[in-house]
Amino acid sequence: MRLKDKICVITGGANGIGAACVRAFAREGAKVVVADIHAPHETVDALFVEADVSNKFSAERLVSTTLKRHGRIDVLVNNAGITHAADFLDCAEEDFDRVLRVNLKGMFLCGQAVAREMVKQKIRGSIINMSSVNSVLAIPNQVPYVVSKGGVNQLTKVMAMSLAPHGIRVNGIGPGTIGTDLAKKAVLGSDEARRKVMSRTPLGRLGEPDEVANVALFLASEESSYLTGQTIYPDGGRLALNYTV
Ligand code: NAD
Predict the structure, then answer these.
(1) Residue 173 C-alpha to ligand 1 middle, in angstroms?
(2) pTM score, two decimals?
(3) Separation CA 62–CA 52 (nearest Å)
């Protein structure tokens, strides 16, 4: 078992990619804590903590509740994220703020609260930030999302540099299009939209949440012990492609 008895907190673990991480980590022996604004869709062997990652007190309560139950935190998967479709000229300030608050500030708040505890307890933990191919590419009508994910990549690097002296590793995952509720809402709304995504996907299919969870598993485990400050892209080849398929 690759995560035997490791205490792993997964934000946004109630659905989609986060839920796949919960299943994969539990299968590998982890004791999982799901942090989400919604209760998990499926019955999972995990502690559920209702938490809004964009709220500092909620992030701190997530850590204290986890410590009360398990005494330590070995792994954090900063996965919770939202989208809002809007072109640059139309994007409202409140929508920009809302997406940035959850997708970027949420990872800062949870990352800081968890890392402080890891440092205090001298735990050489692993933190994983869920980025996207949209951290380095741009979809015109996903303004705040694209900006937030660009920020996540830099957050990953600066956290990795700050925490390296403590032996804590921080890495990112930048998925291509994965068939979850978020992707259905953001980029898979019609046959035409799906065709556009496929024209940019050399492997010719959507990714599965489990295929992202497998990367998270690798980054959480000792198999990636010399890896920090990196973002890995399970994207079906999209970032290597110039033009269309
Ligand atoms: P999803 O909508 O299926 O799941 C997201 C989960 O986050 C939900 O359970 C939701 O309740 C939770 N959540 C939302 N706001 C929250 C908050 N403030 N506090 C706590 N939990 C909150 O989405 P998904 O597709 O599984 O996406 C997960 C992550 O993967 C996101 O960061 C997303 O940007 C990233 N991602 C997804 C794709 C894709 O194609 N699906 C591609 C690249 C990156």
Answers:
(1) 13
(2) 0.98
(3) 9
Mode of pairing for the β-strands spanning 46-50 and 31-36: parallel
Q: Domain coordinates of the chain in residue numbers?
A: 7-180+208-235
Tell which residue, 48, 52, 84, has the closest CA to residue 187.
84
**What is the chain's mean pLDDT, rounded?**
97
Ligand 1 midpoint to CA 157 (Å): 21
Give the SS3 label for residue 233: coil
Burial of 92 (0-12, 13-18, 19+ CB in 10 A): exposed
- pLDDT tens column, 217-229: 999 999 999 999 9
At 47, give phi and psi (nearest 5°). -85, 125
Q: What is the pLDDT of residue 189?
A: 87
Ligand 1 within 6 A of CB of 153:
no
The CATH number of 7-180+208-235 is 3.40.50.720
